[in-house]
Amino acid sequence: MRHQLWGPRVSDHRSSDEGLPFVDFVIKHGLNIWNDPNSDPTFHTTRVQTWIDVTVASAALDFAAHTWQVTTRTLTDHNYLEYNLGEQDVTERVPRFNLNRFRLNKVARKIAGIEPTLLDQLQRSESPEDLDRFVLALTATIQEVCATYLKFTKPRLKTVPWWDAELETLRNKTCALKRRFHRALDPAVKAIKKAEFRICRAKFRRMLSIKRDKSWSEFCMEVSSLNEYALPYKICANKVRRPLVIGSIQVGGRPCTSLRQSIEQIVRVLFPSDDEVLTESREQQARRLFVESYDSTDRDPHFTKTEVWSALKQSKRRKAPGLDRLQYEVIVAINNKSPRLLVSLFNRCLDIGH
């Protein structure tokens, strides 16, 4: 789309104001356009050049607007739009906290200090909607306390030591040549593009193999210089544990060759698929009819603190948090200091039937 806010007027069959709906969107949400109308074109081919790619951002990123520029030396029709945000982290980060006993106790004591207020709000909840609002408020309170007293874990970069900018550039070039080869319509041009792509792909694979092998050799030399019986020795001596294969399980008269195949065969034998027509025995039918016709006005017994503590104890530790972003250790610490909070919440849900 084009507009004079981010590019000069181009005379052709299309209107220069076709970007008006997008301009309305930018104004409505308070965004800023970083494009410079006097910059190089953002889209360039042998037949046309135009300014159709737009960069917008909120006011929080205005500090980097002056770094916006167009890079024309690319392998695609669309030029790169580059900008520098510096070292400021503007991405949304899932709060995964670095937990220790001292900081967890501070969080638990803070929640215990406001426990009477929370219990009073819980008792005033008379409907499922009130309970939902209370749970949301309680979750937000715990998240705020955790953000105050706990520290975030540092993210670990998942990369390999031998990958560098040269390999990155060569991979991008290979992908670009592959796209050009697939888009070519003329058979003669397609053959030329195919040859260029294969040459570049072979060069990329060769360089990838060389850098990987060189990095592995350097690693082996470094490790062996410290300990002669380290990982390289174990690999050569065949002392590295291999994946388990259960050879006694057979598929089609032949032993399984992998652990996955063995597990699939076990599941297939122990848990066969149901028939297309669902059948049930007399006992199953009687049980189903009893459950469907069950009606009782008696209230179920309330949960106890021991039951809640036992359920928390049986849960697994060091697991990723859910949508509420509350880790298991935080819930356990709060329950140890304020045991009435969770059990009162569960019993209130039981009384209201939520």
Description:
This protein is mainly alpha-helical and 354 residues long. It has a domain at 19-84. It is 49% helix and 6% strand. The protein has twelve helices and ten strands. The chain has helices at residues 20-28, 101-113, 115-123, 128-149, 165-183, 187-226, 231-236, 259-270, 282-292, 305-314, 328-337, 339-352, and strands at 32-33, 43-44, 49-50, 56-57, 69-71, 80-82, 97-98, 151-152, 250-251, 254-255. The strands form five sheets. A two-stranded antiparallel sheet has the order 1-4. It has a two-stranded antiparallel sheet with strand order 2-3. Strand 2 and strand 3 form a beta hairpin. Helix 2 crosses helix 4 and helix 2 packs across helix 11. The longest helix is centred in the middle third of the chain and has 40 residues, at 187-226. The protein is extended and about 80 Å long. Residues 1-81 form the Endonuclease/exonuclease/phosphatase domain. InterPro entries: Endo/exonu/phosph_ase_sf (IPR036691), Endo/exonuclease/phosphatase (IPR005135).
Strand content range: 5-15%
Q: Measured on Cα atoms, how large is the radius of gyration?
A: 32 Å
Total number of helices: 12
> Tell me about the biggest sheet?
2 strands, antiparallel
Terminal-residue CA separation: 51 Å
Helix content: 40-55%
Structural class label: mainly alpha
The strands making up the biggest β-sheet line up spatially as 1-4
- Segments where pLDDT lies below 50 for 5+ residues? 88-92
What pattern of helices and strands is seen along the backbone?
HEEEEEEEHHHEHHHEEHHHHH
Global mean pLDDT? 81
Overall morphology: extended
Number of strands: 10
Domain Endonuclease/exonuclease/phosphatase: 1-81
Protein name: Endonuclease/exonuclease/phosphatase domain-containing protein
GO molecular function: catalytic activity
